[in-house]
Specification:
about 625 residues, mainly alpha, two-stranded antiparallel sheet, disordered N terminus
Length: about 625
């Protein structure tokens, strides 16, 4: 088997993976040595349906922290508690699952002499690396080369692999997978490949492109090696993701097969994820970035609602930013918007420290609005949201939407459950990485400006495509209620207009490249966090998108850069190995098993994962 060396060498086993394996043995009630596996195409399909790096628990635990630590989002005023709960979800489950399926396929191929099925193992291997990159982002060292092998006679307590070694190994593995995808003896059932429909050229491009994720993470520690990796991506005959047609965008089912499988989850995210930052929303609206309409939802103040506030003599009760954006006629009625639809409907939460003079100024307008923005007609009462939170239908497919109408007005709802589409790796991301690496001098091919402008253009188009597939509110419709309402889909000329604004126009600055990466990653919180961490943007004092420095209230050197690791339980069979690895990485284990064991989060800023050690401090963009 041509790629057998690679397939056997890599794998991962943690307590989660071990439990999974033991469960399989218990169900089979037979000798593990006699375990058989299903046909490779079925195993690969199942792996694709289970693949997910941003699942419900990730959005519940990690996203609120990532968004607030980077100030790319907010859920209210900031305080010490914003930074004092650095406990998130371990990111290992996603790639463990993929490795388990890959190993099962490898064993099938060996037992049945089916080298023509290697592509299925390579698919699972590529997905495993994608997930493993995210696990390394937070955990640093992970178990990989000795892991996920116990059911096949491997170690019960696999060793940890170092970040640098893993990055090098991933590149080697991806090159092996590319060679498999380019082997015309491979036999793939197109209908079983729910990502690329059996198109091995696209799988090869995806595998090649993944190396750019590694290159930008490695750059701070080894710029030369990062450049070599990136240059090899450009020279590889497999090509890379450079068009929306090749992007890693897919959904898992067309119907509710397997419960919530088609919809990502049935659980609501609304109310507790970090939503919009005023600074971010203003940056996007000022630069006429169409993605603000795909990532965030419109607030509740359409022209008919505004007119009802006027009719009830409550014009002064409108949010001040709404008042500032409307023109009244000579009779004091609503005439028009200054900014215009749909841009006038997007507002974010201010980045302000609680119990400070600024907080007092914002308190009634932004943070205590339960009874403030209400209308009542007879017994009918309605409240209206002033802010623009993350658009939940871009995260999951089971969301009901109601058009904001005045009390006593019509009920206009969209209750369709739409199978969820997700963007995992696109041409926008790819070209923005290339713009970064070219401008840094890490690669010599192409124009940084061309990569940058193409990256922005493709990012907007990809997110517009995903928004359309997810049928988010106001996409392609105004619902016929407010005659001034505007639909939100991408319009002709908008990308060119965006690229011409002062905030986006190419000028060679690294800040603009990183800010566009951050915008692209709004709904990919891990990438958003890692990009802000490795680049130091948003930057304090920026005229484009500033990071707010809270000064003496809370030091930026105390903002976490990773999660806490508590000391392993003495009964954990991995106790000694895990504890030794934490110490080897320079991490002080926490002692509180039910929560953070540190009295200060500064340790989570100074004790960094390997790839983060040379990165700038928060807000000190390089």
């Amino acid at each position: 088997m041509k790629a057998n060396k690679i397939f056997i060498a890599l794998s991962l086993l943690t307590v989660v993976g071990l439990t999974s394996c033991r469960d399989k043995f218990a169900e089979l009630n037979q000798n593990p040595a006699a375990v058989t596996v299903a046909e490779p195409s079925y195993l690969a399909t199942r792996a694709m349906t289970l693949f997910e790096t941003n699942d419900y628990t990730f959005w519940f635990y990690n996203q609120p922290l990532y968004a607030k630590w980077t100030q790319m989002g907010a859920s209210g005023a900031f305080s010490e508690s914003t930074y004092s709960m650095p406990t998130g979800v371990n990111r290992q489950t996603a790639y463990i699952t993929m490795l388990n399926y890959r190993n099962d396929i490898v064993k099938f191929i060996e037992a049945n002499e089916r080298p023509d099925a290697e592509a299925y193992a390579a698919m699972c291997g590529v997905l495993a690396i994608y997930g493993a990159i995210y696990a390394i982002d937070i955990n640093g060292d992970i178990q990989y080369t000795e892991a996920s092998q116990y059911r096949y006679g491997g170690p019960l307590t696999p060793a940890y692999d170092k970040v640098e070694d893993l990055y090098n190994l991933f590149v080697e593995e991806l090159d092996e997978y590319i060679s498999v995808f380019r082997d015309d003896t491979q036999v793939v059932v197109a209908s079983q490949d729910i990502i690329y429909g059996g198109d091995m050229k696209k799988w090869a491009k995806m595998a090649n492109t993944l190396k750019l994720k590694i290159a930008v993470r490695l750059y701070g520690q080894n710029a030369s090696k990062a450049g070599q990796i990136a240059q090899s991506v450009l020279s590889n005959p497999a090509g890379y993701i450079d068009s929306m047609d090749d992007a890693f965008i897919y959904h898992k089912a067309d119907a509710a097969t397997g419960g919530d499988l088609a919809y990502q989850t049935g659980n609501s995210y609304s109310g507790w994820i970090a939503s919009s930052s005023e600074n971010v929303i203003n940056f996007m609206v000022d630069s006429r970035d169409p993605r603000v309409r795909f990532f965030y939802y419109k607030n509740g103040f359409n022209s008919k609602v505004i007119q009802e506030f006027i009719d009830e003599g409550k014009v002064d009760d409108l949010p001040p930013f709404v008042q500032d954006n409307i023109i009244l006629d000579e009779d004091g009625n609503f005439d028009s918007y200054i900014l215009g639809e749909p841009w006038c409907r997007y507002y974010g939460i201010p980045i302000v420290w609680t119990m400070s003079p600024e907080y007092d100024e914002y308190l009634g307008v932004y943070f205590e609005t339960t009874d403030r923005y209400q209308l009542a007609v007879g017994d009918a009462k309605k409240s209206y949201s002033w802010s623009s939170g993350l658009n939940e239908e871009m995260i999951r497919g089971r969301v009901d939407f109601a058009v904001p109408t005045i009390p006593g007005g019509p009920v206009i709802q969209d209750t369709e459950d739409v199978p969820w589409w997700g963007l995992y790796l696109g041409a926008g991301e790819t070209n923005l990485y290339l713009a970064e690496l070219r401008q840094l001098g890490a690669i010599s091919t192409g124009s940084a400006q061309a990569y940058y402008e193409r990256g922005v253009e493709l990012s907007v188009k990809e997110w517009d495509y995903v928004a359309g597939k997810n049928k988010i509110p106001y996409y392609g419709t105004t619902y016929g209620y407010d005659p001034l309402e505007a639909s939100i889909e991408l319009k002709d000329g908008e990308i060119a207009a965006m690229l011409a604004t002062d905030a986006v126009k190419w000028d060679g600055s690294m800040e603009k490249i990183y800010l566009q990466q951050l915008m692209n990653f709004t709904l990919m919180p891990d990438e958003m966090f890692v990009t802000a961490r490795r680049s130091g943007y948003p930057k304090v004092g920026s005229s484009l998108l500033p990071l707010v420095d809270f000064g003496s209230k809370f030091a930026r050197t105390a903002i976490p850069r990773r999660f806490e690791f508590t000391e392993p339980s003495p009964t954990d069979i991995m106790h000694d190995i895990r504890l030794a690895n934490l110490k080897e990485q320079g991490f002080t284990p926490g002692t509180n098993q039910s929560g953070p064991g540190f009295t200060s989060t500064s340790v989570l800023n100074t004790e960094r994962v390997w790839q983060d050690k040379n990165a700038p401090q928060w807000g000190e963009g390089k």
